[in-house]
């Protein structure tokens, strides 16, 4: 079993839809949870960062962590064509940009106008 | 606008040839990561350095891959000899000490095709 599992999709939704992206993980030592967004032929960019359990909201994006279930989610409200990208979850045991991350395989999202 | 740069952006080579990929991390970042991305495996960590010292290269096939940081502004990943299964996109990322969250800044990647 991989440490982090993520449904690769692809996921196709109409503009304005609410999108739900999810990851599960097996290592209970993970405490820091991230979502990266990767546009075609580009490197991933950090989108959201959360520590431990709970919700974090940033504009149209909400990240949710349920450590008891080892499950994290990213919700996108009022999705836009510009949100079309691959979304990768990532996790770490320790804080700090210089710490090793474990990534999910990514979910490819297309938002149709 | 500080960013990680990688060269070359695309590389097509024949099996058995040596391939060298280069990365310039963001100035002031002390940690450099090398990743490989494929459809099948996703993004895999190959190796990473902190203050130019290798910390972990357990993700790298040791017999053909090597990674170095000759100085703070240059990281290299070398494959010798290359094989078709090495075809992938190779990303370099850098991070700064004490940076907020766990943000890593990725370069644009080197798309390698081994024929």
Low-confidence stretches of chain A: none
Radius of gyration of chain A: 13 Å
Q: Largest sheet of chain B, described in full?
A: 7 strands, mixed
Q: Which segments of chain B are poorly predicted (pLDDT under 50) over 5 or more consecutive residues?
A: none
pLDDT averaged residue by residue of chain B: 93
- Approximately what portion of the residues of chain A adopt beta-strand conformation? over 45%
What does this structure look like?
The complex is a heterodimer of chains A (113) and B (115). With 113 residues, chain A is mainly β. In chain A, 0% of the residues lie in helices and 54% in strands. In chain A, the strands form two sheets. In chain A, strands 2, 4, 5, 9, 10 and 11 form a six-stranded mixed β-sheet that branches. A five-stranded antiparallel β-sheet of chain A has the order 1-3-8-7-6, with no helix packed on it. Chain A is globular and about 40 Å long. Chain A starts with a strand and ends with a strand. Chain B is mainly beta.
Which helices and strands appear, and what pairs or packs with what?
The complex is a heterodimer of chains A (about 110) and B (about 120).
Chain A: E1 4-6, E2 11-14, E3 19-25, E4 32-38, E5 45-51, E6 54-58, E7 61-66, E8 71-76, E9 85-92, E10 102-103, E11 107-112
Parallel strand pairs in A: 2-11
Antiparallel strand pairs in A: 1-3, 3-8, 4-5, 4-9, 6-7, 7-8, 9-10, 9-11
Chain B: E1 5-7, E2 10-13, E3 19-24, E4 31-38, E5 42-50, E6 53-56, E7 65-71, E8 74-79, E9 88-95, E10 105-106, E11 110-114
Parallel strand pairs in B: 2-11
Antiparallel strand pairs in B: 1-3, 3-8, 4-5, 4-9, 5-6, 7-8, 9-10, 9-11
């Amino acid at each position: 079993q991989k440490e982090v599992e993520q449904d690769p999709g692809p996921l196709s939704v109409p503009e304005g839809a609410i999108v739900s992206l999810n990851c599960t993980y097996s290592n209970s030592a993970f405490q820091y949870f991230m979502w990266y967004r990767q546009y075609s032929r580009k490197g991933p960019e950090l989108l959201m960062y959360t520590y431990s359990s709970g919700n974090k909201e940033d504009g149209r994006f909400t990240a949710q962590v349920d450590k008891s279930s080892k499950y994290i989610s990213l919700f996108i409200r009022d999705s836009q064509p510009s949100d079309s990208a691959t979304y990768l979850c990532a996790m770490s045991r320790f804080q700090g940009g210089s710490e090793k991350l474990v990534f999910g395989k990514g979910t490819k999202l297309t938002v149709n106008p | 606008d500080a960013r990680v740069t990688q060269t070359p952006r695309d590389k097509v080579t024949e099996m058995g040839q040596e391939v060298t990929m280069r990365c310039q991390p963001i100035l002031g970042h002390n940690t450099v990561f090398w990743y490989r991305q494929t459809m099948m495996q996703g993004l895999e960590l190959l190796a990473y350095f902190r203050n130019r010292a290798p910390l972990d290269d357990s993700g790298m096939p040791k017999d053909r891959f090597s990674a170095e940081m000759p100085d703070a502004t240059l990281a290299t990943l070398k494959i010798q000899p290359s094989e078709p299964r090495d075809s992938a996109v190779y990303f370099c990322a850098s991070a700064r000490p004490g940076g907020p969250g766990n943000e890593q800044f990725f370069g644009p990647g080197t798309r390698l095709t081994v024929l």
